[in-house]
């Protein structure tokens, strides 16, 4: 590897602008004549709209317009949709209710938008929004999915009887699974709750809609992880504008974690309002709006049975899950508790029979969709809590029980669709146990006991699936889009290089890692390589960044395009040196005839391609190639996380004394960036397990956790430094051998932490977040 | 409307503001210095931290009129002559930022912290002093590392100067 090539810890090219205040986020954009939007939102969880009276608001200073859902409907703006079709067990399609960008008949959660005020300043728009009088007829609300399924509960959408969106199953037949459970020597049963979370990227969502009446053209600056998908969906489904008349730009984006994949009402409304009013319209969410309206994550309630034979081998797993979808089906929501969840229920274990049943349910809460890990954290948490409890019930060590059940030969076909291509679970387990000094735990526990502290240790062996693919397979499972990625490599006449990628960076460091790839290939300095992304006018159609797909899929597309560039460059060089093409190699920025001292510098080849004075016969001028890459399979990162905690029985406060992560991500381009991804993921996982939780008042449906005063975000002093290592087995299914690393931390860490806490206090039933209050109560109940 | 005058990054600036205008909005909207960010509405996240008369403050909970007559330093004013400040350089070297949104506030907080503690910073102190700054991307691991590295370097620089 070179100093800037594959495998090097290269400091990030993008850092300087962020460190000097020169990052360009959507809210930083200012265009001439720009006005500001503030939304009027429902204060009720469920209500009919009788009337909206904006006459006073319209007279307020600075107000340009107050627009409502009737006008939006009259202008033909379509419903928001879910782009993944799931069919229930009975073959019926999922029951999708209408989601209007501005509600005009019924509001279904607190924060549902009903009108928008456009004014000269945010302050004036806010003042006027307060004066919009909406006459509501309140309806009873339900916020909890288990309750919403009961008879006699409030009904959200006429399309979905009993609030049931789908009732879906996967895997071994229920009868065969039940039979295996009945024949088992031991069955561990648990109820597992995966708490509802708010993603909370630090940059709140924002949108700037600019309508150009002369060209009948729209530009949308927005906080998106996938601007092309946003353009496609806004064109094809919401009738905002045809794709060639709509430019979507996602400039610097301040974190996403899934929540910025989706198309929300606000960007649609800003574009539409810009046409209605003739002025550019900008909206920026405040944090309370973010809590109210950003898609939430998780919120599963499950029961699980894990069956063992007398040799402690798992013989069957049966899972029943209820997933809260909130008031409307968000863009990818349907896929999360199905193909991103149930398909991972084999974990790292050989389980001959797995049956999963999933019911998706409407409630009067914010829409729920993919949040870092999306389905895989829920699957891992369920499995890893259950196997840990089983080990305690069986009186065997948790490591031994896992080891006994590890999958050891690959490829391995699970009963739940997935075909694992490669892995070495033992290697991660051993590395983590060694790093954590598992063997010395008993001594540390005894020492802690002398100080009056309860010490516990827990592990979690996770598997995840990244880079959802191939497109034909996901299409057959209901996806409305293909999940390939695109790249274009443009070599300029002076030899500098631009890479246009369909991936989008909102913290992942693509401008550096993608450039490393190119530098590695052609021996040019990374400063001569620019990565272009996030603008539908500049970059060819691409699918964006989520599901840890930028490495495995996005970079594979770049590799394909680089292959084509390299082939053409070698042809040109061979022609210039009058050598055989197959003898040409690229070394240190030169194209050489192998074994000789004949060479042409890289820039000379590029220049020759563009002067076209002396090219091989019939060759087109130029050096620019594009590629689309459609993976042949998911990739399967896996690893083992170990957490050690100390609990103060007097206060119930948990202190994390060490956290060890041993991951297999396949090949790594920039270890520094990969470690950063793991750190951030672990922090979010610890947040889920220890601190975070979205709470609605069950009667009124009011969001009780709508600010950082009420929603506990992990702070620096809640967390330890992490010990991170890699034990990599290259992925056999993509050219770089990459598996993906963006979500692992958030997937593997919650069960490790909860297993440690429950180990310390001897109570298997504790739920997340393990707040001091809950832990204290559990400690004192056990006594 | 009230006219306020203050020094921002060494340059005297004035502007008409409403009484309710927050310093952060004056800086972002009137001065066009968009490096200072707004991440919350309850004074919790620290994305808006700037220095007022040498001490870090949250510009989202300071009125523009309160800052009249003061010296304000924002992230844009930290690097001198195109050279990153040691804290900025340490954030880069230690990968202390991902999406960059919390970064200006983190850096301004860190500079103040190092000014206050000098060489006496350790991991625990750094973590405690970051209580008012939220980062969702990095898990703080590399931010803490960066601040400790910068503190060590700045401390060494100070010693060499003495
Ligand atoms: S914006 Fe000032 S603390 Fe969050
Ligand atoms: S780097 Fe994204 S919030 Fe800190």
UniProtKB/TrEMBL annotation, chain A:
Keywords: Molybdenum, Oxidoreductase. One of its GO terms (molecular function) is oxidoreductase activity. The keyword NADP does not apply. InterPro entries: Ald_Oxase/Xan_DH_a/b (IPR000674), Ald_Oxase/Xan_DH_a/b_sf (IPR036856), Ald_Oxase/xanthine_DH-like (IPR016208), AldOxase/xan_DH_MoCoBD1 (IPR008274), AldOxase/xan_DH_MoCoBD2 (IPR046867), AldOxase/xan_DH_Mopterin-bd_sf (IPR037165). It comes from the Bacteria. Residues 20-140 form the Aldehyde oxidase/xanthine dehydrogenase a/b hammerhead domain. It holds the Pfam family MoCoBD_1. This is Carbon-monoxide dehydrogenase large subunit.
TrEMBL record, chain B:
Keywords: 2Fe-2S, Iron, Iron-sulfur, Metal-binding, Oxidoreductase. One of its GO terms (molecular function) is metal ion binding. It comes from the Bacteria. Residues 2-78 form the 2Fe-2S ferredoxin-type domain. Gene3D superfamilies: 3.10.20.30, [2Fe-2S]-binding domain (1.10.150.120). The keyword Transmembrane does not apply. Pfam families: Fer2, Fer2_2. SUPFAM superfamilies: 2Fe-2S ferredoxin-like (SSF54292), CO dehydrogenase ISP C-domain like (SSF47741). The keyword Iron applies. InterPro entries: 2Fe-2S-bd, 2Fe-2S-bd_dom_sf, 2Fe-2S_ferredoxin-like_sf, 2Fe-2S_ferredoxin-type, Beta-grasp_dom_sf, Diverse_Oxidoreductases. This is Carbon-monoxide dehydrogenase small subunit. It comes from Mycoplana dimorpha.
């Amino acid at each position: 590897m070179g100093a800037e090539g594959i495998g090097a810890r290269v400091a990030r090219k993008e850092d300087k602008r962020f460190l000097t205040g020169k990052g360009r986020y959507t809210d930083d954009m200012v265009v001439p004549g720009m006005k500001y939007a503030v939304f009027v939102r429902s204060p009720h969880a469920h209500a009919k709209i009788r009337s909206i009276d904006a006459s006073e608001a319209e007279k307020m200073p600075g107000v340009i317009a107050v627009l409502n859902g009737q006008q939006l409907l009259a202008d033909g703006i379509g419903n928001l949709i879910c782009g993944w079709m799931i069919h229930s067990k009975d073959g019926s399609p999922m029951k999708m209710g209408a989601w209007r960008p501005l509600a005009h008949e019924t509001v279904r959660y607190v924060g549902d938008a009903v009108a928008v005020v456009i004014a000269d300043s945010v302050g004036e728009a806010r003042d006027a929004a307060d004066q919009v009088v909406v006459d509501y007829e309140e309806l009873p609300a339900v916020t909890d999915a288990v309750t919403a399924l009961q008879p006699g509960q409030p009904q959200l959408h006429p399309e979905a009887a009993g609030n049931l969106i789908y009732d879906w199953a996967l895997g071994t037949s229920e009868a065969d699974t039940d039979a295996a459970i009945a024949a088992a020597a031991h069955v561990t049963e648990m109820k597992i709750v995966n708490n509802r979370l708010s993603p909370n990227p630090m940059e709140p969502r924002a949108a700037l809609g600019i309508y150009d009446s002369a060209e009948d053209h729209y530009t949308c600056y927005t906080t998106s992880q996938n601007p092309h998908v946003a353009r496609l969906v806004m064109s094809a489904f919401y009738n905002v504008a045809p794709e060639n008349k709509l430019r979507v730009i996602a400039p610097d984006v301040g974190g996403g974690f899934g929540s910025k994949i989706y198309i929300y009402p606000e960007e649609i409304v800003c574009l539409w309002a810009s046409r209605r009013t003739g002025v550019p319209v900008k909206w920026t969410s405040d944090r309370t709006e973010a809590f109210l309206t950003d898609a939430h994550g998780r919120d599963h309630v499950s029961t699980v049975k894990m069956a063992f034979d007398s040799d402690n081998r798992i013989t069957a797993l049966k899972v029943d899950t209820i997933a809260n979808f909130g008031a409307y089906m968000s863009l990818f929501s349907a896929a999360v508790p199905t193909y991103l969840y149930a398909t991972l229920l084999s974990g790292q274990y050989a389980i001959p029979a797995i049956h999963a049943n999933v019911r998706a349910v409407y409630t009067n809460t914010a829409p729920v969709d993919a949040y870092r890990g999306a389905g895989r954290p829920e699957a891992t948490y369920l499995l890893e809590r259950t196997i840990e409890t089983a080990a305690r019930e069986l009186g065997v060590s948790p490591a031994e029980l896992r080891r006994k059940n590890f999958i050891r030969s690959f490829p391995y076909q699970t009963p739940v669709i997935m075909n694992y291509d490669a892995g070495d679970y033992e290697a991660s387990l051993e590395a983590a146990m060694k790093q954590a000094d598992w063997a010395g735990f008993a001594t540390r526990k005894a020492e802690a006991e002398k100080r009056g502290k309860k010490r516990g240790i827990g592990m979690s062996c996770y598997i995840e699936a990244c880079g959802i693919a191939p497109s034909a397979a996901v299409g057959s499972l209901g996806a409305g889009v293909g999940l390939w990625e695109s790249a274009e490599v443009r070599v300029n006449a002076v030899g500098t290089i631009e890479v246009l990628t369909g991936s989008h960076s909102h913290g992942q460091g693509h401008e550096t890692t993608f450039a490393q790839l190119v530098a590695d290939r052609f021996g040019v300095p990374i400063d001569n390589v620019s990565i272009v992304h996030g603008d539908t006018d500049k970059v060819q159609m691409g699918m964006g960044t989520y599901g840890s797909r930028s490495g495995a899929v996005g970079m594979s597309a770049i590799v394909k395009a680089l292959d084509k560039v390299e082939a053409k460059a070698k042809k040109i060089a061979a022609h210039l040196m009058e050598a055989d093409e197959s003898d040409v190699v690229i070394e240190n920025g030169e194209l050489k005839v192998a074994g000789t001292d004949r060479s042409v510098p890289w820039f000379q080849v590029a220049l020759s391609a563009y002067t076209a004075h002396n090219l091989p016969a019939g060759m087109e001028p130029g050096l620019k190639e594009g590629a689309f890459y459609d993976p042949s399979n998911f990739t399967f990162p896996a690893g083992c996380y170990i957490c050690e905690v100390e609990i103060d029985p007097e206060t119930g406060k948990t202190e994390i004394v060490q956290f060890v992560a041993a991951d297999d991500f396949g090949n790594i381009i920039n270890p520094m960036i990969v470690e950063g991804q793991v750190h951030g993921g672990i922090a979010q996982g610890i947040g889920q397990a220890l601190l975070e939780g979205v709470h609605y008042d069950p009667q009124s449906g009011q969001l009780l956790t709508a600010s950082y005063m009420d929603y506990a975000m992990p702070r620096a002093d809640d967390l330890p430094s992490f010990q991170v290592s890699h034990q990599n087995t290259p992925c056999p299914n993509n050219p770089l051998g990459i598996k993906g690393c963006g979500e692992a931390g958030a997937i593997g860490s919650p069960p490790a932490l909860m297993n440690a806490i429950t180990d310390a206090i001897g109570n298997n039933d504790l739920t997340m977040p393990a707040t001091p209050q809950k832990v204290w109560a559990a400690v004192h109940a056990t006594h | 409307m009230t006219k306020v005058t203050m020094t921002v990054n060494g340059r005297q600036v004035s502007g008409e503001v409403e009484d309710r205008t927050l310093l952060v909005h004056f800086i972002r909207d009137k001065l066009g210095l968009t490096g200072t960010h707004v991440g919350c509405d309850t004074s919790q996240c620290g994305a808006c931290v700037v220095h007022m008369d040498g001490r870090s403050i949250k510009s989202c909970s300071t009125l523009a009129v309160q800052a009249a007559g003061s010296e304000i330093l924002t992230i844009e004013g930290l690097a001198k002559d195109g050279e990153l400040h040691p804290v900025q350089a340490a954030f880069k070297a230690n990968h202390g930022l991902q999406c960059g949104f919390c970064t200006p506030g983190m850096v301004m907080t860190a500079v103040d912290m190092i000014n206050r503690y000098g060489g006496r910073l350790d991991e625990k102190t750094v973590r405690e002093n970051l209580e008012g700054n939220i980062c969702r991307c990095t898990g703080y691991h590399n931010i803490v590392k960066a601040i400790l590295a910068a503190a060590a370097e700045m401390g060494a620089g100070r010693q060499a100067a003495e």
